[in-house]
Specification:
By secondary structure, the protein is of the alpha/beta class. It has an eight-stranded parallel beta sheet with strand order 9-8-7-6-5-4-11-10. A seven-stranded antiparallel beta sheet has the order 1-2-3-12-15-18-17, with no helix packed on it.
Length: 496
């Protein structure tokens, strides 16, 4: 497997080919009905599963680790836990699948949020005695109101000392250095996603309340909002979710977010970016391999701009292999309202991520998106739209998130579609017309290139139109098409 680097807005390998990653999250948050390391080891991650993932076209996995499992006691690392993932990385390699490591968290940790949290071990969850608030509507409510979650993040960002006298952020960075050292020799290592969905702490609840206030003002006083229709839906069918129709218009949505940008910008620049530099420096002390992935703040998942600068270290050295790994979800994700949600709100989020990419001038791998649990009209609509959006912007992605029921529900089948694995030149565009089962790829190739374009095909093609010679190889239950490029422009069209 090739080593992966970044070059301007593209991922490239050591042969100079541009690379694209179509992948899936694999994050096991733990079973707190069990004790010790056994609580964090999934029992269904095996070679048969990896083989199926390969057949569905996935060539990348966002592989989640849980800090609580890695470092159950301060400075003591669980090698049994790490060995499980090291062995799993070897299985992924056998099937040609890359992985990047994600240090996952939700609601900071399990101690303060037993109904949905994961991440920090109890010894690092410094909440000043605040007790968690049980959610009423959705698991993420701990982010929205002051309490144990906000206090835990405040202590982390400000490096509050744990009982052993060492700052919790310093412990986190040392833990990452240990993990990087253990994984650095894996040939299929794509990189390091250092912290899942960084949340601002106490300022976060202010952002949420500002958004709610703005939404109420737009509903009451913005004449472009269809108030009568919304109230009619609520009265006629008790469809309380119709209130979300207030922000279907992107201009109204932008006004709902007004007044929150500065709070998120201050967090990005004064707390998150210094942390990103610190933890990345700790990783780079152990290995120069792998891409450093920067995520956006939790609230940028809903379209608030991300202000993180291009990663550079304290000595002024710019990180050579740096990429943006944004997340983006429809506002009603994880609720029944998701099924009828329009695509324009989530499009608003990803258009903001385009602006961040343009500012940073780095490649994008969408770290999390989706959240769909079945083959339904709403899932098909969102999946197709977003995959087309990613392709149009030459973005890689990892879908959220693998679980056993996905295969039975048909979600993996929805994600199975053609795309280029590698392109020996500068990619201009690629697109899959699902209605007509037609895939197109256009790229410019240097006449010296001896490497083929490699295209994943979920089914045997009926017709291949290309300027160069080609070879069709079996790829599990699917196919891999290799096309020898010609010098200059290469236009390829494949009908399935």
């Amino acid at each position: 497997m090739n080593r992966i680097f970044t070059r301007a807005r593209a991922f490239v390998d050591d042969n100079g080919c541009e690379r694209f990653f179509h992948g899936i999250n694999m994050v096991y948050k733990g079973d707190h009905g069990k004790s010790g390391v056994e609580a964090f080891l999934p029992d269904d991650w095996d070679e048969a599963l990896v083989s199926r993932l390969r057949d569905h076209g996935f060539n990348c996995v966002r592989l989640g680790l849980i800090w609580e499992a890695v470092e159950p006691k301060p400075g003591e690392y669980c090698e049994e836990y790490l060995k499980f993932f090291l062995d799993f990385a070897d299985i992924l390699k056998k099937y040609g699948i890359y992985f990047y490591l994600d240090m996952h968290q939700d609601l900071f940790g399990a101690m303060g949020t037993p109904w949905g949290g994961d991440g920090a071990p109890d010894w690092a969850y410094l909440s000043d005695g605040k007790t968690p608030r049980k959610p009423f509507f959705v698991w993420a409510e701990g982010y929205f109101f002051p309490g144990s979650v906000t206090r835990g993040f405040d202590a982390f960002w400000h490096n509050k000392r744990a009982a052993d006298g060492v700052g919790v952020k310093d412990r986190f960075c040392a833990m990452w250095a240990h993990v990087a050292e253990r994984f650095r020799d894996k040939e299929n290592l794509l990189g390091f996603d250092v912290f899942n969905e960084p949340f601002p702490g106490s300022p976060g609840s202010k952002v949420f309340l500002k958004v709610v206030k703005n939404a109420a003002l737009q509903f009451l006083f913005n004449d472009t909002v269809p108030r009568k229709e919304i109230i009619g839906k609520i009265m006629a069918s008790k469809d309380v979710g119709a209130i979300f129709d207030t922000i279907n218009d992107p201009e109204v949505y932008r006004k709902v977010l007004a007044g929150t940008y500065e709070t998120v910008r201050r967090f990005d620049l004064s707390l998150y970016y210094p942390f990103l530099r610190q933890v990345s420096a700790a990783i780079r002390q152990k290995t120069d391999k792998g891409v450093i992935f920067a995520e956006n703040c939790y609230f940028s998942n809903m379209g608030i701009p991300c202000s993180v600068p291009h990663l550079a270290y304290k000595n002024g050295t710019k990180e050579k292999n740096f990429a943006f790994a944004p997340h983006g979800y429809e506002l009603t994700v994880d609720t029944p309202l998701m099924e009828s949600a329009p695509v324009n709100r989530v499009e608003f989020v990803f258009r903001e991520h385009i602006r961040t990419q343009e500012r940073l001038d780095v490649p994008v791998l969408v770290g999390e998106w989706g959240g769909f649990n079945g083959d339904t009209p709403g899932s098909r609509r969102h999946l197709g739209y977003l995959l087309d959006f990613f392709d149009a912007n030459l973005w890689s992605n990892t879908f959220w998130c693998y679980h056993r029921a996905m295969e039975e529900a048909g979600v993996l089948a929805l994600l199975r579609r053609p795309y280029p694995h590698s392109v020996p030149g500068k990619t201009e565009s690629f697109h899959y017309d699902a209605d007509n089962a037609r895939f197109t790829l256009t790229f410019d190739s240097d006449k010296k290139s001896k490497k083929p374009a490699r295209i994943y095909l979920p089914a045997e093609p009926k017709q291949i139109d290309c300027p160069g010679k080609y070879k069709l190889n079996s790829y599990g239950s699917a196919f891999m098409l290799e096309i020898s490029p010609v010098a200059g422009k290469n236009s390829i069209e494949i009908t399935l």
